[in-house]
Amino acid sequence: MDDLSAPLGQKRPQRAATRWLGKLGLNRIPVTPIQALAGGLGLAVGAVVLWSVAVDDPLGGEPMVVVAAKTGGANAADPAGATDTKGNARRYDGPPPTAAQPSGAQTVNIIDGASGKSQQVVIPVNPAGPGSSSGAASAPPGDRHLLEKTRHGDVPRIGADGARPSTAYARPLAIPPGKADAPRIALVVTGLGISTKATNDALTRLPGPVSFAFTPYGHEVDQLVGRARQAGHEVLLQAPMEPFDYPDNDPGPQTLLTSLTAEQNIDRMQWLMSRFQGYVGIANFMGARFTASESALGPILRETGKRGLIFVDDGTSSRSLAGQIAGANNIPFAKADVVIDNVPTAAEIDRALGRLEAQARERGIAFGVLTALPLAITRVADWTKKAEARGFVLVPITAVAIKAKSS
Question: H-helix or E-strand containing 10?
Fold first, then answer.
């Protein structure tokens, strides 16, 4: 019965629910369906928040599976390690380290401040422990007298007989008949060892006289260095040095810094030198700030000469004091005349190679450096095939490293 059909003077009977709301004083509150829906959603959200605070679930609701495996474990009573001390099943939180990253290995993120690109690199542990080198296999067994044990591993040294690593690991200089007076060009590819693909590309496409500079961080750097040496390439170790925008632009762990003492930097350098063996010298990896500081760079260059190695400046910083310091200490030294892929386009790389040729014709010898970019390797590989026909002789880096005289 509605209000129109009810007899005059009589009230419309109330429903039970309405009478109940009236007793609570809620029958006068207007509630629309939309408001009721919003209220329900609010209650649901509140319940989720309350549950997330009260319940300890580190996986945050991600799918998980509780299993009991029998594939080997921590003790005889529980060979799978699938239960805890109370016999409850353990939750599986992911696989253990695999062969790609051995237990104890360190993963670092190297950021290029110029491009903003980052790359994760796995630094392997030294399996033989302190006093042995993870890269000792890349040094010929007969050259053990050229290695010194340190707390980080084996590092190069001058042998008791006066033999120097820069001579022992040098590629023999072979000048083709009739080319004794031909202008000579040395090329160094930097940044190898981190990317196996880029290193394999360089190994496949570039001839033996082209020298390879390896960073110390690659997981397989020791094997790659061994392959490069077997293919006839001279090898350099790239030591990470502080750039002006450090730490925004971070070369990697054990970077040589202007804020450290000489002893601290030499200790870091020995860590770097222990990562692999068989190299003829040290090259800078970044380092515009470090190479501009005599107090920071001087001890490193003297340590380099003391260990029978050459020092190579990649020519990327006009403020570098490496030439002056090397000259004052009579350290074998070379500085790149041309950075071939400073502008990484095919046209600019070809122009840079043209400038390198011009310097070689003018001075009789020239030195160019390039990074392990696919385009740079491709253009330089094509150029090397025509170099001899154009009247040039390719030589390794030790052929252009001279003992600069102090001015």
Answer: none
Residue 83: other Cβ atoms inside 10 A = 14
Give the residues across from 149 on adjacent strands.
154
- Confidence band (pLDDT; 50, 70, 90) for 305? very high
> DSSP secondary-structure letter at 182?
S
Taking only Cα atoms into account, the Rg of the chain, rounded to an integer number of angstroms, comes to 34
Count how many Cα atoms sit within 13 Å of the Cα of residue 331 in the half-sphere of its side chain: 30
Please answer whether residues 217 and 272 qualify as being in contact, where contact means their C-beta atoms are separated by less than 8 angstroms: no
Instruction: Calculate ∠ Cα 240-349-326, nearest 5°.
Output: 40
In this structure, whether the domain defined by 146-403 belongs to CATH 3.20.20.370 is answered with yes
Cβ atoms of residues 94 and 62 within 8 Å: no
**Where does residue 211 rank: exposed (0-12), middle (13-18), buried (19+ CB within 10 A)?**
buried
- In sequence order, which ranges of 234-345 are alpha helices (DSSP H)? 262-273, 294-306, 322-328
Tokens for 270?
């020995």
Of 192, 190, 211, nearest to 400 by C-alpha is: 211
- At residue 70, φ and ψ (nearest 5 deg) are -125, 40
pLDDT per residue over 183-222, tens digit each?
Answer: 999 999 999 999 999 999 999 999 999 999 999 998 899 9
Alpha-carbon gap, residue 26 to 144, rounded angstroms:
93
> In the chain, what are the domain boundaries?
146-403
Return the SS3 of 118.
strand
For the chain, the straight-line distance linking the first and the last C-alpha, in angstroms and rounded, comes to: 116
- How much is the average pLDDT of 128-157? 69
Give kind and range of the element (H or E) at residue 334. strand 332-335
